[in-house]
Amino acid sequence: MRETLEKIRKEALEALSAPSAEIEELRIRYLGKKGELTAVLRGMGKLSAEERPVIGQLANDVRAEIEKKIDELNQKKNAALLEAKLRAEKLDVTVPGDDVRAGHFHPLSLVQRQLEDIFLSMGYSIVDGPEVEYDYYNFQALNIPPDHPARDTQDTFYITDNILLRSQTSPVQARVMEKTQPPIKIISPGRVYRSDAVDATHSPLFHQLEGLVIDRGITMGDLKGTLEMFAKRMFGENTRIRFRPHHFPFTEPSAEVDVSCFVCGGTGCRLCKGEGWIEILGAGMVHPNVLRNCGIDPEEYSGFAFGLGIERIALLKYHIDDMRLLYENDIRFLNQF
Ligand code: DAH
Fold first, then answer.
1. What spacing in Å lies between the alpha carbon of 248 and ligand 1's midpoint?
2. What confidence score (pLDDT) does residue 12 get?
3. How far is it, in rounded angstroms, from Cα 167 to Cα 53?
4. pLDDT at 171
5. Cis, bond preceding 183 (omega within 30 deg of 0)
6. Which one of 73, 230, 295, 327 has the minimum C-beta count within 10 Å?
7. Is the C-beta atom of 171 inside 6 A of ligand 1?
8. Is the CB of 112 under 6 A from ligand 1?
9. 303 in contact with ligand 1, CB cutoff 6 A
10. What is the atom index within ligand 1 of the atom nearest the CA of 208?
């Protein structure tokens, strides 16, 4: 029996040491229920009382030795598997990520947003109006009847005799007043169109921002205060404003409004062409005819309106000398904002 056990030990350890050893198969073959070592242990009953503990001890040693070898091999195998797995799943967290190219706003959008922020903070709401507009809203409701000379400066694109691409954002005034009784306090930014040839200061498509305030007891003082506040927020705390008499059919009185040059402060420089002042918008007290046209009683209510060109503000603010740059979408230009 002793020889059988020694033989099992030798064979088992040899078999397990072979590089191609199938560990689990060998475990079953030597240590399994029907395995060789188990078979020997079963025969122990036949041994004499003296032999039994000696052979028993030897059998245990052989079993322990084989088990130890199997454990070692399994551990090695698992370590190798883990190593391979880690290698396969290797992730270098220090590799720089893929560049996420975030876009950014166009200079016109930047200016429009800044304008909106300023007026929102003063309690204005933003409203939208159609770009394809009726002649009625673009002109007639605004006190510009057919054949009025003011139409000459706002020649636009006609869809039919009565429908056109709006030449100004002012028709939104009429649309809002028709639908809403005062108090009204809105701005309306958007695209406008004129049949102008393209050059450094003209484009057939550009953007305006309209403002309208209607309530009881609104005066020219409210208009001046509002525009002064706006000018300081937009162009800097030291900015002053100046009203020059002008004519718009839909306001009375009307004014063109200048701001003191935000580059030289008013002493005269290249930006303001030596004037010290820069024209930025048109404004006035809403004409009683316009209020009446839109169902608001001019005896009870008054209000002011203003309209500014968003391109003009963008060109001034960013010192851009050619309006065409705003529409060409040259990435070298746009990347500067
Ligand atoms: N709509 C005018 C234009 O395009 C600008 C304007 C002037 C708007 C005076 C107004 C205003 O609301 O009161 O030239």
1. 7
2. 86
3. 113
4. 98
5. yes
6. 295
7. no
8. no
9. no
10. 4
Tell me if residue 246 falls in helix, strand or coil: strand
Give residue 196's pLDDT band: very low, low, confident or very high (50, 70, 90): very high
Question: What digits encode the pLDDT tens for the residues 47-86?
Answer: 888 888 888 888 888 888 888 988 888 898 899 999 999 8
Where is pLDDT greater, at 71 or 174? 174
Other CB atoms closer than 10 Å to residue 51's CB: what's the count? 13
pLDDT in tens, 114-136: 999 999 999 999 999 999 999 99
d(CA 18, CA 179): 94
Residue type, 212: L
State the pairing for strand pair 277-286/302-309: antiparallel
- Full-model pTM: 0.73
Neighbours of 102 (CB within 10 A): 5
CA of 94 to the centre of ligand 1 (A): 58
Give the tokens for residue 305. Answer: 């309106």
Residue 232: enclosing H or E segment and its boundaries? helix 220-235
Residue count of the chain:
337
State the DSSP code for 245.
Answer: E
- At 153 the three-state DSSP class reads helix
Q: Are strands 205-215 and 302-309 parallel, antiparallel or unpaired?
A: antiparallel
Cβ atoms 281, 292 nearer than 8 A:
no
Structure tokens at 148: 């009025």
Do 287 and 293 touch, CB atoms closer than 8 A? no
- 27 to each of 7, 20, 76, 151, 212, how far by Cα in Å? 16, 14, 16, 102, 92
Measured from the Cβ of residue 330, the count of other Cβ atoms closer than 10 Å reads 10
Residue among 205, 206, 167, 169 nearest 187 (CA): 169
Instruction: Give the amino acid at 172.
Output: V
Amino acid, res. 90: K
Whether residue 326 contacts residue 314, with contact meaning beta carbons closer than 8 Å, is answered with yes
Give the amino acid at 105: F
Six token digits for residue 23: 């560990």
DSSP symbol at 149: G
Segment 2-29, tens digit of pLDDT: 888 888 888 888 888 888 888 888 888 8
